[in-house]
Amino acid sequence: MERAKRIINKLKKMWAEDGVVAVYHMMCAYVTYALYDRWKIRRLRKFPPRLVKNRILFETNDDFTDNSRALFDYMVENGYNEKYELVWLVHEPEKYTKYVTKNVKFVRNFKKGTTIRRAQAYRYALTSHFIFYTQAFNWIGMARKNQVFVNLWHGCGYKANKNNRRVFFDYCLVPGDVFIETKKEFFSCSSKKLLPFGYPRYDMMLRGSDAARAFKEKLLKQSDSEKMILWMPTYRHATSERLNEETLNNEFNIPILEDKETLLTFHDFCRDNHMLVVIKKHYLQIPYDFGENKLTNIVYLENQDLEENGLQLYEFINCADALVSDYSSVAIDYLLLDRPLCFTLDDYEAYTESRGWVFENPLEYMPGEHVYNLEQFEQFVLDVKNGKDDYQAQRQEVRGKTHNECDCYCKRVLDYFEITK
Fold first, then answer.
1. How remote is the C-alpha of 28 from its chain's centroid?
2. pTM over cut 0.85
3. In 10 A of CB 312, how many CB atoms?
4. Burial (CB count <10 Å: 0-12, 13-18, 19+), residue 101
């Protein structure tokens, strides 16, 4: 009875927010799940099909992206698909038909327009020898003998665990040895499960791409700018309320730029100095709303904008002349490019109380400008314009602790698991 009430309330909310078509898809999903998928999933779990030794499954939170995508691309480019079947669980398989080649398959993960998992997704999950993912794979509910679950994860940064999340895996990647201790506590797991190999997407970031460089040049030309600073704040107001960090209570929910006056002052400063600041929204962050303010030298991008330009985020990160972040793991990743870093820390004390840190002294792992106000932020922009960089030695010192560098991160992962051509 309670379950039925929750479903009805969910449908009512969906009707109000998304309209009748969304409700129709959800109702169809509930009906087909009740009539077929639920029974099928129970049977699959009770009598799992034969494990396919050469089948490798991929899943990411945002379809066909991040570490799983980088690893998959490397495997296809280097002919691993001649030997292995590579299967992706995605929302809309039809979007990826151009990537279908020998032994490559895209399978619909959820019922259309819903988060209800299809029985077919369970079939592939239960029959794959290796499963690579970047968020969590707890939904599978069981692990079979000889299956290997590899959590490629999505970054090691400064923030402590929240809500005591439990993530299931046999192995999880971290960038370097220092994160074995932090992630052991974060995940409440054995250090033997943590592999300090770095992330497959590092190959993508270090290499970049012609498409990403062309997109950067387009943005610079449109804004009459000389250099591009990429700004990637971590989320504060998330799409899921349980993840919210109520540490910023300004007009735009973004660090430093607390109101319209500050926003426009910073924008005019960038414009007058021919500098472009690109704000990349965290995928969990509620979209920023800068109102009717006309901005040419502050550009706001979401994942969809990159997708429409055929880009992966880490290809684009390669193009940044400098990075602005705060407590996001991207700052750790960017150390490999050895370019200027800026950390916005105006809510550092509040974040310490709200979330806390994995390091006893997190500021020691932030090798760059520490800015708390607009004037300091503008000075960083000016330093980047003029090529002033006082933190190279500090970055090198921190990078030695946080990274285990190599020539090819994808190959390192595959070799460890004896996945060979």
1. 31
2. yes
3. 22
4. exposed
